[in-house]
Amino acid sequence: MTNESVNHAKSATVKIETKRKSARKAKGLCEKAIYAAFFLTGLTSALCVVLITVYLIASGTPAIREIGLTSFLFGKEWSPSSGEYGILPFILTSIYGTAGAVAIGVPVGFMCSLYLSKVAPHKIRTVIEGAVGLLSGIPSVVFGLIGMSVLVPAIRSFFGIPDGSGLFAAIIVLAVMILPSVIKVSLNALDAVPKEYEDASLALGATPIETYLRVSVPAARSGITASAVLGVGRAIGEATAVMMVSGNAANMPSIFQSVRFLTTAIASEMSYATGLGRQALFSIALILFIFIMIINATLNFFLGRSKK
Q1: Total count of domains within the chain
Q2: 306 with 185: CB under 8 angstroms?
Q3: Vertex 12, ends 6 and 14: CA angle to 5°?
Q4: pTM of model > 0.70
Q5: Cα–Cα dist 84/68, whole Å
Q6: Is 59 part of any domain?
Q7: Spatial CB neighbours of 88, under 8 Å, sequence gap ≥ 6
Q8: What is the pLDDT of residues 272-298, one digit of tens each?
Q9: CATH of the domain at 273
Q10: Within a domain: residue 153?
Q11: Does any domain span residue 87?
């Protein structure tokens, strides 16, 4: 081989190596840009939470300082025109309404998810899953409209009361609204249970129902609990549908009496409130935000347990 051929081969090798280095460098820069985009996206989400938290604290604490924390949280009268800013009726109504919705919606959603995951034929599961997905996409105002035009008159006629709007109607509507979240999360948790667990239980002589209830459900316990916590968050944060069926009156909670939730108190008065009354609404939003943060922390706890 002549020197010219050797030099040509070396030159070609150098060019190929240079191209490879350039390609690796470009690929590295591209990956760094993607990582930077991911970081900025995550940082933006975290920053939004921080800004909302700071804004609510800055806007909500002045009214609490002026009214007094005890009077604000435990006062039973809400009448801005009279200088009364007690939100205990709103807090108790939100707690009772959420608890009632969860007591109805979670068992129904859990049993539905257990049926879909372990018992239902494929075609039936496909149909019901599609219906659940459709239910999750219905706007809140539609739930409120149906509740106001169908459920409220039905309650009034069935129980023989002057007005069907109240806590009971709100509980029923909320129970229906949390069903998609409970069903989807519980279904995913049950589907994730290894089939070997169920096969071993059946091999030991257990019936299918015993296997589902004593093996599959305990194995999916963390996911099912997370679905209940999600249902709580969905129920406590709802405003539009609840406002349309609850009567929206600032009364202490009673099953057939018109009531007002924390969310509906903000939604119904924010458009015209001024002065201390408007600041008190921001204080209600701060209390509601604290409730939601506690629920999210509980959800993360159970999700962490399920991963372990």
Answers
A1: 1
A2: no
A3: 100
A4: yes
A5: 11
A6: no
A7: 73, 74, 75, 76, 252
A8: 888 888 999 999 999 999 888 887 787
A9: 1.10.3720.10
A10: yes
A11: yes
